[in-house]
């Protein structure tokens, strides 16, 4: 579950229509009060996008939370997909029937806040009997915590987040006497040798945008800085783009194209390396033939740094939730970040633990011994960063993906394309202030 092209529904224009309507949700505080009076647990409605094994694994944690105390009861509903969840949230905001909490791509937060949908968590985090202690806060990976921080407030907690890793075919490495590359330059140097045998050196997913973002970040040219300075046509970003396009132009690398994900040609041994989300690991474990020997490593360093742009979901609370519901939602969020819980969720889902203690836990370390392909994913936590959250991010990302597609399918000049993307992004940010 990687970053996907956000629907136009996420655009500021669509969300702006909800500003007035979203002041109250359907989390009836009166029902909460009556529940309290009758000593029944406060119901915490929770919408998410998990399906199949992910849904079952998550429900195990929900059941564990519900059994661990008597004050709150989390009732979860799967909406089936990111897009369906987004559509349901939009519709619920209009009809004032929002749940207490939900999963959301963290880059949606800026648009949600602008439209008045989200309840800040700061009071829950910093005060009360269930506040986050200094030790608990420091245990959470800083970049993961940043996925919920916007305009100086905390609107979300990290949950189902993935890192970027390099996948490699051990058999092909041995055949061609190659080693796992530690830099992009080293990776590109394998191109001529492999091309002679009609092998790709590297295949991306359907877009290389997250690799470009990581390389630009490593070079000190973050796409959009926390102060909203846009660096799309920064010379450092342009150089990173040219590095990728050089590999593609020479036939060393390509995007997945009709395959959508690199994992398919990788499993068919059509490439030595693939790069993508750590969430691909469980899928590859299932689809790759048993005869394929493969593993993962950190994404090659660029400008001396290996970086990993985070992708995935955080948990948010909607405005309109009663104080009791807010307390319950926070209790559940905090429960999910406990050492054994985040570790077990990582084992069952393929995401990475959001805390340092979760990675070091016996549960997760025992799992890494059984499935060593996840070691690099966990190691990448220390090299990860959160994309800057801002209102209009959905529009920006659509433009970014369009730019990438044009460089691949239409051979658009990347320098001119980045200059155009710079202008579009600046306009997007300005129009959403």
Give a structural overview:
- There is one protein chain.
- The protein is an alpha/beta fold and 433 residues long.
- The chain folds into two domains: 8-162 and 311-385, Periplasmic binding protein-like II (D-Maltodextrin-Binding Protein, domain 2), CATH 3.40.190; 164-309 and 392-431, Periplasmic binding protein-like II (D-Maltodextrin-Binding Protein, domain 2).
- The protein is built from 22 helices and 14 strands.
- It has helices spanning 12-16, 29-37, 52-68, 82-95, 109-114, 122-126, 134-139, 142-146, 170-175, 184-188, 191-195, 209-218, 235-249, 263-267, 280-287, 323-336, 339-349, 356-360, 362-370, 375-379, 393-409, 414-431; strands at 42-48, 72-78, 101-105, 149-150, 153-154, 156-162, 164-169, 200-203, 253-254, 271-277, 294-298, 308-309, 311-317, 384-385.
- Helix 3 links the parallel strand 1 (42-48) and strand 2 (72-78).
- Helix 12 (209-218) crosses helix 13 (235-249).
- The radius of gyration is 22 Å and the shape is globular.
- The two termini are 30 Å apart.
């Amino acid at each position: 579950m990687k970053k996907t092209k956000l629907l136009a529904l996420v655009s500021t224009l669509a969300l702006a229509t909800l500003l007035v309507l979203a002041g109250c949700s359907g989390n009836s505080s009166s029902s909460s009060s009556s529940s309290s009076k009758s000593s029944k647990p406060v119901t915490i409605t929770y919408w998410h996008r998990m399906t199949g094994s992910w849904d079952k694994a998550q429900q195990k944690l929900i059941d564990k939370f519900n059994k661990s105390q008597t004050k709150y009861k989390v009732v979860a509903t799967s909406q089936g997909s990111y897009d369906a969840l987004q559509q349901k949230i939009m519709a619920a905001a209009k009809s004032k029937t929002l749940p207490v909490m939900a999963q959301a791509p963290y880059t949606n937060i800026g648009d949600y806040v602008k439209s008045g949908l989200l309840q800040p968590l700061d009071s829950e985090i910093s005060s009360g009997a269930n506040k986050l202690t200094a030790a608990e806060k420091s245990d959470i990976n800083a970049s993961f915590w940043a996925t919920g921080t916007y305009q100086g407030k905390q609107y979300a907690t990290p949950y189902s987040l993935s890192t970027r890793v390099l996948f490699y075919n051990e058999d092909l490495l041995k055949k061609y006497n190659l080693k796992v590359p530690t830099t992009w330059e080293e990776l590109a140097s394998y191109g001529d040798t492999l091309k002679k045998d009609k092998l790709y050196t590297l295949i991306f997913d359907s877009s290389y945008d997250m690799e470009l973002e990581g390389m630009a970040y490593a070079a000190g040219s973050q796409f959009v800085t926390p102060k909203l300075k846009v660096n799309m046509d920064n010379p450092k970003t342009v150089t990173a783009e040219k590095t990728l396009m050089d590999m593609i132009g020479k036939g060393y690398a390509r995007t997945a194209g009709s395959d959508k994900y690199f994992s398919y040609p990788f499993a068919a041994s059509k490439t030595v390396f693939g790069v993508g989300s750590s969430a691909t690991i469980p899928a590859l474990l299932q689809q790759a033939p048993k005869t394929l020997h493969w593993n993962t490593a950190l994404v090659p360093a660029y400008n001396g740094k290996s970086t990993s742009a985070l992708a995935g979901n955080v948990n948010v609370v909607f405005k309109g939730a009663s104080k009791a519901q807010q307390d319950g939602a926070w209790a559940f969020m905090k429960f999910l970040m406990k050492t054994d819980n985040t570790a077990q969720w990582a084992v069952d889902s393929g995401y990475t633990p959001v805390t340092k203690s979760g990675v070091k836990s016996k549960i997760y370390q025992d799992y890494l011994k059984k499935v060593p392909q996840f070691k690099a994913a966990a190691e990448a936590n220390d090299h990860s960063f959160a994309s800057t959250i801002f209102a209009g991010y959905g529009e920006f990302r659509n433009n970014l993906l369009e730019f990438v597609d044009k460089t691949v399918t239409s051979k658009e000049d990347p320098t001119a394309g980045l200059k155009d993307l710079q202008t579009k992004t600046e306009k997007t940010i300005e129009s959403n202030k």
